[in-house]
Design a protein that fits this description.
It is built from 18 helices and 27 strands. It is 36% helix and 23% strand. Strands 14, 18, 19, 20, 21, 23, 24, 25, 26 and 27 form a ten-stranded mixed β-sheet that branches. Helix 1 runs antiparallel to helix 2, helix 2 (33-63) packs antiparallel against helix 3 (77-108) and helix 10 (349-360) runs parallel beside helix 11 (379-389). It is α/β, with parallel strands linked by helices. This is Polyphosphate kinase.
């Protein structure tokens, strides 16, 4: 099949459509007010990472003199860079409109986000004291001139460009760094029953004369700028350096990567803007985007709640898993049957309890686990260290290249290594993205395996906001295969055979193709034939082509894809049997679930892998079969709840309009109804 733009949606443009869905949540008046601000923060944070990675990659293709059409779904790199910039400018403009609307709604709730021109005299002393006590000692101010080279600007910070002017026409320009370590929002004392918040940027504007009192000027102004750098890591080839050393240096070098986006306050003086662009050597290849008064809007993810729980989503209390008890041994419980933990509807504490129990149990001999992204304060890591201190043989495969979490992972890797844990730093040329653990316990003079396989990271923080499945099992067949994956980490020139799990990079494509072929055969024979998929993204042309083939054969395909979707559904003669929705809501939909009819005897897998080329060919991934009939039914029920969402689901089709799915059926909001499903399950 020819790779044509009518057959595939460009990956980058599809991603921007996903981020537009995030922006829709910020615009949705049914979303609690402060949560809307936080969705604006998520939108901005997503965009930052997009420019650091995906835009930077397209830019590299462009600068290498390559057209990029085959890699980019039928569009040239130069044209794509221009289209991205235009879309982002429009989205940024819309986000500013949303922000203004939210600000008016906050005022109706007696919450005022003020700037330096709206400060009440009664707040003057508080603000000045805050400036001198909290901000002034930590300020970094850079005086600019053409004779002195500009220091590298941090892309995790925003900067106020300050212009001091005299009547004689002598101008002085400076930059004030707004460090990511500063609290962006400062809550002022309440006045007359009203709450007041001021951004640290505006405190600095209010105190410009205090900062620059050694200079003489007639006028002073400040406008914000922000730079985003290429975030891809480049490794040197010095064989004498350890992988950790190389990665540490590469993470540090990220701050000096080539600029890929420059955002500025559209009200900045044109001469000052030209001066800055020249000083930073930013030309037409960079994405130069006019913005509003404030940048780094990702900080809105931490907008203060002011104790106003009525302006937030109700917090859910994680439910117990029926049959699993913190008062009993998890080993003894899962020896009898498999259990599924579905965070955040269930508590992540079951996983930590399992590891802590293993750390103390004298019969446990070995623990092997993969780690992709650890929490800043990780009970998982402390449990593993505890186990090592108790004489267990602990092996941790940690992915040091988990994008933007490299530094935290490096710190924990060094700490665990110091405690005697055997550390495996992945496989050459592959990222280890699978999430699994296998524990060996001595019982009646033989080793019995227990473990868990997950769709998500073993991370206490993200487990509160990401939806993920974790299968807890003592199934010897599955865990024998899982153990083989750990053997592959240590002896990776040997490719193992697996009877139950599906692994990347060796078998995912061929095994999934085999499962799809079975559905094609069933459809041609007039039997039940369907495929139901839930994942974050699909961009692999090979996987898309196979689904097109299945659709043409009459296989009914339902897909729930949160993010990138390069497949074009509903096209006659190509994909008319494929329907796709996307759900963006309170929690981040992170589960990967594959369901194949198998002639009405469903084969069901949970997986760490999306259907992207990187997951299929360039990562170690594991898809785990579900054999327990109760859990199989549970997963099918959960899929149907999501598929029937008519509140937060958007239709993905040829138009790419992100239209909400609406019908006359009773309201189904998947995440809320999933909680009700588990509540009924536990109580009933």
């Amino acid at each position: 099949m020819t790779k044509d733009k009518n057959i595939y949606i460009n990956r980058e443009l599809s991603w921007l459509k996903f981020n537009e869905r995030v922006l829709q949540e910020a615009a949705d008046k049914d979303v609690p007010l402060i949560e809307r601000l936080r969705f604006l923060g998520i939108f901005s944070n997503n965009l930052d990472e997009f420019f650091k990675v995906r835009y930077a990659t397209v830019k590299r293709i462009y600068e290498a003199g390559k057209g990029g059409k085959s890699e980019l779904g039928g569009i040239r790199a130069g044209d794509l860079l221009e289209e991205i910039t235009q879309i982002v400018i429009a989205q940024q403009s819309y986000s500013l409109e949303i922000l203004e609307e939210i600000d008016l709604e906050l005022q109706k709730e007696n919450i005022y986000v003020i700037n330096e021109t709206k400060i009440d005299e009664r707040h003057h002393d508080f603000i000045k004291n805050y400036f001198y006590q909290e901000l002034s000692p930590a300020l970094v101010v850079i005086m600019l001139n053409e004779e002195v080279a500009l220091p590298e600007l941090m892309d995790i910070s925003a900067y106020l460009t300050v212009k001091m002017s005299t009547k004689e026409g002598k101008d002085q320009v400076a930059l004030i760094e707004i460090s990511s370590t500063m609290d962006r929002f400062v809550v002022l004392p309440s006045l007359d029953g009203n709450s007041y918040i001021i951004m640290v940027d505006d405190i600095l504007r209010y105190c410009l004369d205090d900062i620059f009192n050694i200079f003489t000027y007639d006028a002073i102004s400040a406008h914000m700028i922000k730079i985003t750098r290429d975030g891809e890591l480049d490794f040197d080839s010095d064989l004498s350096k350890s992988f950790i050393d190389k990665l540490s240096e590469s993470v540090k070098d990220r701050q000096s990567g080539a600029p890929v986006r420059f955002v500025y306050d559209m009200n900045i003086d044109p001469d000052t803007l030209t001066f800055l662009l020249k000083l930073m050597a930013i030309d037409e290849k960079e994405s130069i985007i006019p913005g509003g008064r404030y940048h780094n809007r990702r900080d809105y993810m931490s907008f203060p709640s002011l104790g106003r729980t009525d302006l937030l989503y109700d917090k859910i209390k994680p439910l117990p898993v029926k049959g699993l008890s913190f008062e009993d041994s998890i080993f003894k419980t899962i020896a009898k049957k498999d259990y599924m933990v579905y965070t955040p509807y269930h508590t992540f504490s079951y996983i930590v309890k399992f590891l802590r129990e293993a750390a103390l149990d004298p019969q446990v001999k070995t623990i092997k686990i993969t780690i992709y992204r650890l929490a800043q304060i990780s009970h998982v890591a402390s449990s593993l260290i505890n186990a090592a201190k108790n004489g267990k043989k602990v092996t941790v495969s940690i992915e040091l290249r988990a994008r933007f979490d490299e530094e935290a992972n490096i710190n924990y890797a060094e700490q665990m290594q110091d405690e005697g844990i055997t550390m495996l730093f992945g496989v050459t040329g592959l990222k280890v993205h699978c999430k699994m653990c296998v524990i060996e316990r001595e019982e009646n003079d033989k080793l019995v395996r227990y473990g868990f396989i997950s769709t998500g990271n073993f991370n206490e923080s993200t487990a509160k906001i990401y939806t993920d499945f974790t299968l807890m099992t003592s199934d010897a067949k599955i865990l024998k295969d899982v153990n083989k994956v750990f053997n592959f980490f240590e002896v990776n020139y040997k490719v193992n055979r697996y009877k139950h799990i599906i692994t990347s990079p060796h078998y995912t494509k061929t095994k999934i193709f085999s499962l799809i072929d079975k559905e094609i055969e069933s459809a041609k024979a007039g039997k039940s034939a369907y495929i139901k998929l839930k994942m974050n993204s699909i961009s692999s042309y090979k996987m898309i082509d196979k689904l097109y083939e299945a659709s043409r054969a009459g296989v009914k395909i339902q897909m729930i894809v949160r993010g990138i979707c390069c497949l074009v559904p509903g096209v006659k003669g190509m994909s008319e049997n494929i329907e796709i929705i996307s759900i963006i809501d309170k929690f981040l939909e992170h589960t990967r679930l594959y369901i194949f009819s198998n002639d009405n005897d469903p084969k069901i897998y949970i997986s760490s892998a999306d259907w992207m080329t990187r997951n299929i060919d360039h990562r170690v991934e594991v898809s785990c079969p579900i054999y327990d009939e109760d859990i199989k039914q549970e997963l099918q029920d959960l899929y149907e709840i999501c598929w029937n969402d008519n509140v937060k689901a958007r239709i993905i089709d040829e138009t790419q309009n992100n239209t909400y799915l609406r019908n006359d059926k009773p309201k189904v909001r998947a995440q809320f109804d999933t909680y009700k499903y588990y509540l009924n399950k536990f109580e009933g």
